[in-house]
From TrEMBL:
Belongs to the plant dirigent protein family. GO terms for cellular component: apoplast. Keywords: Apoplast, Secreted, Signal. This is Dirigent protein. It is found in: Secreted, Extracellular space, Apoplast. Residues 1-29 form the signal peptide. It comes from Zingiber officinale (Ginger). Pfam families: Dirigent (PF03018). Homodimer. Dirigent proteins impart stereoselectivity on the phenoxy radical-coupling reaction, yielding optically active lignans from two molecules of coniferyl alcohol in the biosynthesis of lignans, flavonolignans, and alkaloids and thus plays a central role in plant secondary metabolism.
Length: 181
């Protein structure tokens, strides 16, 4: 009996390893790639702004919009095109804060939630710096919900237009997401 037991033990160890491997593989979801294109409409001026200043550095209120320490809350519509009446496909909601003492730099923490099309009800999340005066810039995508669960990726941005009086801006986005199937 004893010699038979010794012969079976290595086989059992290998079997246990194979079972563990199969289980590990079956729990690892497949990743798919999704590309998104839209325009982010940021309205600071007028009676119904989509971005509002909620805080400034103590003792420094009333300075330029991008003064170091300024914190904005955003509810910016995402539209198919750059025109103000282009169909809305979602909203970018969260905050944007001026975080550089030397250049025009914001750090944005935003949830880009879709309200139309195949990704209605899903969103991806960004937490990244955004040097808004640069021509082309890249934001890091750090997560997602719904169809974009477990998303990672990046967004390529280019400012389409800025109103120098109001600060209103339209920004073009190309987003690449890697997420669960
Ligand atoms: C998006 O989803 C919501 C919630 O399920 C639904 O009420 C709405 O009609 C959908 N919108 C479009 C444009 O499909
Ligand atoms: C987005 O992709 C389109 C098609 O490749 C390209 O024409 C456009 O310049 C890109 N825009 C940005 C901001 O990357
Ligand atoms: C720019 O903003 C100002 C102030 O809100 C507004 O009066 C003007 O019409 C805007 N210009 C354009 C081209 O939209």
């Amino acid at each position: 009996m004893a010699s038979r037991g010794r012969g079976v033990a290595p086989f059992l160890v290998i079997l246990a390893f194979l079972v563990a491997q199969c289980f590990h593989q079956s729990t690892e979801a497949k990743k798919v790639t999704t590309n998104l294109h839209f325009f982010f409409h940021d309205t600071i001026g007028g009676p119904d702004p989509s971005a509002v200043l909620v805080a400034s550095a103590v003792g420094r209120t009333g300075g330029p919009l991008a003064a170091f320490g300024n914190l904005f809350v955003l509810d910016d519509p995402l539209r198919e095109g750059p025109e103000a009446d282009s169909p809305v496909v979602g909203y970018a909601r969260g905050f944007s804060m001026s975080t550089s003492r030397r250049s025009m730099m914001f750090v944005m923490g935003l949830d880009y939630g879709f309200t139309a099309g195949p990704f209605n009800g899903s969103s991806f999340s960004v937490f990244s710096q955004n040097p808004i005066l640069d021509g082309d810039r890249e934001l890091a995508v750090i997560g997602g919900r719904g169809k974009f669960r477990m998303a990672q990726g990046f967004a390529l941005l280019r400012t389409h237009s800025v109103n120098d009086t109001s600060g209103d801006a339209v920004v073009e986005y190309n987003v690449t997401l890697f997420h669960d199937e």
